[in-house]
Amino acid sequence: MSSTLVTGIAELVTWDDEQPVRTDAALVVEGDRIAWTGPAHAAPATDTAVDVGGRAVLPGWVDSHSHLVFAGDRAAEFEARMTGTPYAAGGIRTTVAATRAATDEQLTSRVAALVAEMRRQGTTTVEIKSGYGLTVRDEARSLAIARQFTQETTFLGAHVVPAGPDGSPGDPAAYVELVTGPMLAAAAPHARWIDAFCEEGAFDADQARAVLAAGAAVGLRGRLHANQLTYGDGVLLACELGLTAVDHCTYLTDADVAALADSGTVATLLPGVEFSTRQPYPDARRLLDAGVRVALASDCNPGSSFTSSLPFCVALAVREMGMTPAEAVHAATAGGADALDRDDVGRLTVGARADLVVLDAPSHRHLAYRPGVPLVSATWVGGRPVT
Ligand SMILES: [Zn+2]
Question: Separation of 22 CA from ligand 1 center, angstroms?
Fold first, then answer.
């Protein structure tokens, strides 16, 4: 197996316990893994070497929440919202109609383009949900398409109750029966996770509980969308069930925060949503101070957050949510890995995958300090540059 020394690293972020951020560093890649990290002067001999010229090297972003399988866009809805129309969960139905009408090839090439866009911005692991099909056929094919791009696929049949064939409001109880029965059976072979949108206008806590239980019975791990638009029972449900992650967490009571800290369930914050819906941001400082494990993700989707950029989310988290630059970078790398129950990504420790980002800057601080600037100069996946 050939080894490569990466030198000229002004700042190396590894998240190892001893020295999580090191200046004047080097690292060794062997095959697709990290074999060594340390001070530049102590680097071992290797087959080849790459000099990154005084740049910072970070773990690749682990984007633990995205909805990339869809057709169409909702730019007009976004424009209307910016001039005063509030966001509501039902807008999802517009994307559902477009997604059902699209061919497999159209959906696949859209996902490929978005994943490439993510790569260019430093994302090396991405979770992708279904949830714009909402029929047995369309949920299963959405997940089969997502699986071509990642192992981290999530069945989100319980995204919203679809309208009936005549356009009438759907029947929530009958739809939950479908999601937990034939739709789950068709989706499960292509999914690692199961998710539900527990929110007013989507699914209540009892319905979400039924969906998660059905998924668990066929071996899917649970995660949940909760407490995005208002206070609700979703976060407490996620903690009670010991889910890996609960996502959004914008409206939290003290009891919600205490339950998150006790359970170890990761709170995934999605500030692209608050930016794009002009809602108040979640209070990351309150969560971190309480000892809650926090992740940052893009929630890339055509309705409420059509950004694929974790550098943008890091800048928002620092500017608007009370995180330090290091906390925000940690949440978007190691935090994202925690939210996917992965210990081989999101950190550059010995034995981890050599998935990394080279910044056109000397420090991770520049991600928030220079917002909107394309600072990712290279993305490496499995030990080699892919951009
Ligand atoms: Zn989402």
Answer: 34
